[in-house]
Amino acid sequence: MKHKILISIISVVIILTGIYLYKDREIIALKTGTTPPLQWDDPYENDEEPIQLTAQNQTLSNPDVHLTEFYYLPKSKKLQFGLWYRKKNYQPNQTANIPDRIFQVTIQDTQGQIFNDDTVVKTEGIWDEFQRRSISIDLDHLENQGTIEVTVSLIAQDGTTITPLESASFKVTIS
Q: Which residue spans traverse the membrane (predicted)?
């Protein structure tokens, strides 16, 4: 009897693990770098070779988000990366003015110019949400060890007014 219960429990754990891996297979591939978080303007003309700017994922603590490697598309002039977080920690909330995109990402170059016009494509998993981000920016003038500062902010939005609630920043070196 105890043997049957143990086998039943192990079977249930294996089945639940299989369901999780199947349901979150796209997010797992994006988070681990198996699939780069790239968005193409024209999916039939995606012969552009991305330049990888960072070597590993970043983890920010306040807000509690994770970022994939950063990629630059030199022909399209776009910086692309993925951002993911626990769904239970961050949800859109109309009464608290938390918009559907939840986070704003801004890029500041060495001349102080700010870029924050981004495209967001969401993928929902069981516990996590993954956002592919694409920001239009020309990095060609920053060759030879220039840097950009990336700021991720949890935001509240009232009409067109955006207020950062929590922010974290880090620098990315362009080589």
A: 6-22
Helix (H, G, I), strand (E, B) or coil at 142: helix
Taking only the tens place, the pLDDT of each residue in 86-114 is 999 888 887 777 777 889 999 998 888 89
DSSP string covering 15-46: HHHHHHHHHTHHHHHHHHTSS-----SSTT--
- DSSP letter, residue 98: B
Give the DSSP H or E segment for 148: strand 146-158
Task: Specify the residue for token string 């929590």.
Answer: 166
Give CA separation, 123 vs 33, 88, 133, 153, 160, in Å: 15, 15, 12, 19, 25
**Domains defined for the chain, CATH in brackets:** 2-174 (2.60.40)
| Distance from chain centroid for Cα 51 | 17
CB within 8 Å of 79: residues ≥ 6 apart: 53, 70, 71, 72, 107, 115, 134, 135, 137, 139, 148
Rounded to whole angstroms, the Cα distance separating 33 from 75 reads 22
pTM value is 0.85
